[in-house]
Amino acid sequence: MKRDTSPTTAFQPAAPRGIVEGLVYVFERVMPDPFVLSICLTFVVAVLALLIAPTGNVPTLLDSWYTGTFGILAFALQMILILATGYAIAEAPIVQRGLRALAAHAQTPARAALLVFPVVAIAAWLNWGLGLIVGALLSREIARRVHVDFAWLVAGSYSAWSICNSGLSSSIALSQASHGNALNLVEKATGHVVPLAETIFAPFVFIPTVLVVVVMTAIFIKMHPKSDNVVAFSDAGDASDDASSADPHARSSDGTATFASRLEQSMLGTLLLLVLGVGYLAMEWRENKFDLDINTTILIFLLIGLALQRTPIAYANAIRRAARQTGSMLLQYPVYGGIMGIMKGTGLASMIAKAFVTIATPATLPVWSYLSSLIITLLVPSAGGHWAVQGPFVLPAAISLHASVPRTAMGVAMAENVSNMLQPFWAVPIVAIAGIRIQRVMGYTAVTFAVSLVIYAAALWLVH
C-alpha cells in the first residue's frame, strides 16, 4: 500500500460503525482541500458582510479585502519562519536519533498514544512550530514500527499540538507581555503589560492545558479503529531529498574539494551567526530583562537549529526541505488575510464580538470572549491576526466592566486551541510532512474539538 498523499486513494472506507468512524466517513466526503475551503470561507464572509455588516458596501469590502490580503504578509513570514526554524531543529541528526529512540518504546497503539501526546504537547507548549514538526516526524517513526491507523496517529499528534496557544509561543500572551509590541492592546489601553505569570502560567490556563492532554490521550486510546479498518503507513516509494540536498560544489571535475564546498562545510559561518545572535540576546536581556516575543522566538530557534545542524549548508538544506512543507501556508495566509480584512473593515467582526460583550458581566466576560473567539477563529485561523480583530472590542469591555483582562485575553487564545481542531489551516503542514490526507485526520480531531471546548470553558468559569 502506498502512502496516502494524493487527493484520491485506492482505499475506500467501510460504512461507519460508530460516532468516530462516522465523523471520519463524513469528513472524507464533505471537506475540500484547505485552499479551496479558504476560498469558500471568503465567499461566505463577503456575503455576510454585504448583508449585515455596518459598512457592508462593495467599495469597502473590496478595499478591506485588498488591505487584509497584503497587510498580513509580514506576520505570515514570521509564522512561516517559526515553522521552518522548528523544522530545522527537529531534522537535526541528534534530534532524529532521539525521535527514533522514543519511537522504539511504542509497541502497541495504546503505547503510541501514551508516547505521542506528552512528547508533542511539551514540544508544542515550548514552540508551536516545533510541536507541529515533532508531531509529524514522531508519528512517521512510530508508524514504521507499529501497526496503527496512521490517520489516527497523526490526528493524535495534532490534538496534542492543540495546546500551543496556551504555551510559550502563544502570540496573544507574548504580545501582551512585550513592551511596545504592535499587538499589545492591553498596554495601549492601560499603559501596563501583562506578564506571562498572569496568562500562560496562571492556573486557569495551565490546569485545562494539562487536562486536555491527559483526557484526550485516554480517549484516543479508545478511538483506535478495529483491525479491519486500520489504514497503516507505508513509505514505499518515498521520494528522497537528493535534489534539495545535493551539493553541486562538492567536487570539481578532477575530484578535489572546491573552495565553495569547503566554505559550505565550514562551521565558521555558523559560529559567526551564533556569536551575533547570542550576543544580541545577552545584551537585550541584560538591558531589558528576559523577554520573549515572536522575533526573539524565531532568533532562538534559528540559533538552536544552526548549532544542531553545525554547518551552513546542512542548515540551508533543512530549510529548503521545510519550505516544501510551508508552501501551502504561503498560499493560504493571504487568503485568510483577505477574510480578516473584510471582517475588520466592514465591521462584521465587531458585530460578532459586541453581540457577546453586550450580555456579559464581569464574571462571564472571559467565557463570552471565548465563545465569540470560537466563531471568529474558524474564519481567521491565526492567533495574532485574530487578536487584532477581536482584541479592540473585548479589552475595552473588560476594562469598563472591571473584568479580568488576562482572563479575557486568554479566553481568545484558548478558543484558538479548540477551533483549530475543526479549522484545517494549521493541520496542513503536519499532514504534508506525515504524508496523509487531511480529511481522515480531521474526522478524529472533531472529537478533540468537542472535548476541549468543554474543558477550557469550564476552566475559564471555575478555575481561579
Automatic annotation (TrEMBL):
Q: Which Pfam family is one of those matched by this entry?
A: SCFA_trans
Q: Which UniProt keywords apply?
A: Membrane, Transmembrane, Transmembrane helix
Return the InterPro entries for the record. SCFA_transpt_AtoE
Q: Which domain of life is it from?
A: Bacteria
Any one cellular-component term (Gene Ontology): plasma membrane
| Segments traversing the membrane | 35-53, 65-90, 110-138, 200-221, 266-283, 298-318, 330-353, 359-380, 443-463
Q: Which PANTHER family match?
A: SHORT-CHAIN FATTY ACID TRANSPORTER-RELATED
**What's this protein's name?**
Short-chain fatty acids transporter
